[in-house]
Specification:
By secondary structure, the chain is mainly beta. The protein is built from no helices and 18 strands.
Length: 181
């Protein structure tokens, strides 16, 4: 088994970077000498951001083929199926991993947080001072408002089995059943 880790601060024995750890013999190998945060591993690629003000980069798990995937400033990102979902300048974007085509979800909202699953993209958006919980189809063709006046605007969202989980300093749960989801 191979594990990956990122050092966020300079350590005496480890410098900043992405490391591969062999779980059998505990050998640690530096594979990329760069800062990294918000890391995701898909197939044989490691996707990451170098800091809060950069785009999204990737490198093969053996440390070769480093490249920038999205060069503009991107916020938190997640990967679902063959797409990278991220926020950039308050906009929610889906980028195809293979051809890098971008789809921008309903841009009348300023987005703050989101989650993705097989049912769609759930996102907190603001428009005209009102905060909403929205659900977008993965392909961006349809959108619906699930809740208006949504107070948990800046917190992590998770959708599991018909429930919306919101993590602020507590874990909260509300049913999506009333919206027909």
């Amino acid at each position: 088994m191979v594990l990956f880790m990122v050092t966020l601060r300079q350590k005496k024995s480890l410098k900043l970077g992405i490391y591969k750890i062999d779980a059998t013999d505990k050998r640690i190998e530096l594979i990329l000498d760069r800062e990294a945060m918000n890391i995701s591993i898909v197939d044989d690629w490691i996707y990451f951001k170098e800091d809060r003000d950069t785009g999204i980069s990737r490198v093969k798990i053996d440390g070769t083929h480093y490249e920038e995937v999205y060069t503009e400033n991107a916020g938190y990102f997640t990967i679902y199926e063959d797409a990278i979902y991220f926020m950039s300048n308050d906009k929610l974007t889906r980028m195809d991993i293979n051809d890098r085509a971008c789809l921008h979800y309903d841009d009348q909202y300023a987005y703050r947080t989101f989650t993705v699953n097989k049912d769609g993209v759930y996102a907190c958006g603001e428009k005209d001072g009102q905060r909403y919980l929205l659900k977008h189809a993965l392909d961006g063709q349809t959108s619906e408002i699930l809740f208006d006046d949504f107070q948990y605007y800046h917190h992590k969202l998770y959708v599991v089995k018909g429930y919306l989980y919101i993590y602020d300093q507590y874990l909260r749960r509300t049913s999506l059943e009333k919206t027909g989801i």
